[in-house]
Here is the input.
Amino acid sequence: MLPRPRGQYIAGALAVVVLASAMLAGCGESADRSVKIVEPAEGATLNAGDIKVAVEVKKFNIVDKIGQAAVDGEGHIHYYIDAGEIPTKDGQPAVTKSNNTYHAQATKEYTWPNVSAGEHTFAVQLVNNDHTPLRPPVIAQVTVTVKATGGTTGPTRSPSTSPSQTSSPAGETTTPTSGGGGGGGATSPASTTAATTPTATRPSATPTP
Here is the structure.
């Protein structure tokens, strides 16, 4: 068997380093694009209820083309809550198995409604119009503590349990299927009546994992 070219080992190592850095201090980046969670801050203590996640994006255009064909340099954002391992499989919609743990959005902020008391992890990922992850993936996440109105902290929210009244556009309605990815007709998570849902949210379809 011929020895593997040294360059392939180096490229593989760099890909691992980039992906790992995306999980540090709420900031993810690659050589030419990045995303950072500016709200809430890592380790913050928040009150139960609606919680806004806002991000800062560099060198990547956020456009309202959820579900359309991928175009280099543009796409939308997938917002995740207590999703566990973030989906980054090449060529596959970056959506979670439960539509309740992700939301596809063509804006730089999204409000998760009715977040319960406990420890929660919010994550974001830059994705292509068709909900597929970038290469290498660009992800950021923060973990916060949410306390009940009375000041006590409840159990950690289960990834399978979604905040009530959560509605998400497609895919970045965090997972593209026809949404979370998916083209125009992606299915979306249950519609929300929460008045805190960002008005800029595009009623997109949520792709099925």
In short: Helices lie at 6-21. The mean pLDDT is 74. The chain has one helix and ten strands.
